[in-house]
Amino acid sequence: EALNRGLEGRVVLDCVVQADGSVKDCVILEEDPKGAGFGESALKMSARFRMKMVTKDGQAVTAGAKVKVPLRFTQQDDAPAPPAP
């Protein structure tokens, strides 16, 4: 819908890092513009996020850490033009 309306947006997620580098329990901290679907899209994408782990003596030390993940949604030049009114 945002693509069809020519909208761009910004989201900041707050997530918990797991021992394998994936994230869980992500919540939307910021979403602009609100209600355009960017926050929900960011939450869906978070299942694919992977963080580089820091280890000490072979054990992950960043597991359980909270991270803020900023995302920007932009229109690509080759994106289809919004439909004419």
Could you characterize the architecture of this molecule?
With 85 residues, this protein is mainly beta. Helices cover 14% and strands 36% of the residues. It has two helices and five strands, in the order H-E-E-H-E-E-E. The chain has a three-stranded antiparallel β-sheet, with helices on one face. Strands 3-4 form a two-stranded antiparallel ribbon. The protein is elongated. The model has no long low-confidence stretch (mean pLDDT 87).
List the SSEs and their pairings.
Elements: H1 2-5, E1 9-17, E2 23-32, H2 38-45, E3 55-56, E4 59-60, E5 66-73
Antiparallel strand pairs: 1-2, 1-5, 3-4
What are the key terms here?
mainly beta; 5 strands; elongated; two-stranded antiparallel ribbon; three-stranded antiparallel sheet; 85 residues
Order of helices and strands: HEEHEEE
User: What is the count of helical runs?
Assistant: 2
Overall pLDDT: 87
Strand segment count: 5
Radius of gyration: 16 Å
Portion in helices? 10-25%
Strand order of the biggest β-sheet = 2-1-5
> What does the largest sheet look like?
3 strands, antiparallel
> Approximately what portion of the residues adopt beta-strand conformation?
35-45%
Outline = elongated
Tell me the distance between the termini. Answer: 15 Å
- Which secondary-structure class do the elements indicate? mainly beta
